[in-house]
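Slide 14.
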Amino acid sequence: MKPMHPMHPWMLLAPLGILLAATIEGVLLQRARGHYDWNAYWASAGDLALRIGAGLLPLGLAAGVLGHLWNYRFYTMPLNRPWTWVVLFVGQDLCYYWMHRADHRVRWMWATHSVHHSPSELNLSAAYRLGFTSRLSISPIFFAPLVFMGFPPLVVGGALAANLLYQFWLHAPWIPRLVGLEWLLNTPAHHRVHHASNPEYLDANFGGVLIVFDRMFGTFREELEGVTIRYGLVDPIQGYNPLRVGLHEWWAMAKDVVAARGVRQALRSLFGPPRPHASAAMAAANLNPPHSMGLGSGAP
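Slide 15: predicted structure.
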């Protein structure tokens, strides 16, 4: 969830509605369950405020690249045709899938994305805990194919914003399974699996709006009956300080680079898989790693 263009005024107002929805959920869950982690709520709010502030700075490693690539597009998509928006919707969700999958497999990208997985409870406030270092991400390059196809970078960014807005409600753990929709769409049940730190659930369900790409590329996992989901990171972050949460993985990565023996090991610390990663956790649990499966296949 990284900004792909300078922040506009409406992007400063949108968080207010999101915060209101998360606050109402917190009050209702507090009354229904007798407990709600308000410290985590404020940690997420602090991350949101830091991210808005960072978004106002003229920084960003990759966002400007899309504007440059627009000059080398193969075609200019006619935005007044319905089929164009269908292509944009499907193409954007496919690009998002690979970006999100890389978020979990490339440590430089995980350094920011791990913040989103840090809450030990899943709720609406976790949806906007995204990491204030997102401007250091290389994630926008995953949407370069859409720009080459002829979609203006601003349109691509708008499509991504709509994708992320859809995902907000996926973080409500009290929504039951939605039978009839879950083959095609990403749902709260699918996203609960994505946020789980259980070995059998790691590195799964990367889709944005659609879940079909997870089914196609072997990363789909079904929510299992009788398996209590553990939320948060495999190696949890202690405390609620948004600065510490946001910089935790960056600091760990920097220490590994300093301690690296040679350039190759340093590059692996920067761009290799994060530690601990899913394949190691699965091996420890005597589970098989994800494998390729066709459309319609269930969890492995």
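Speaker note: DSSP finds 13 helices and no strands in the chain.
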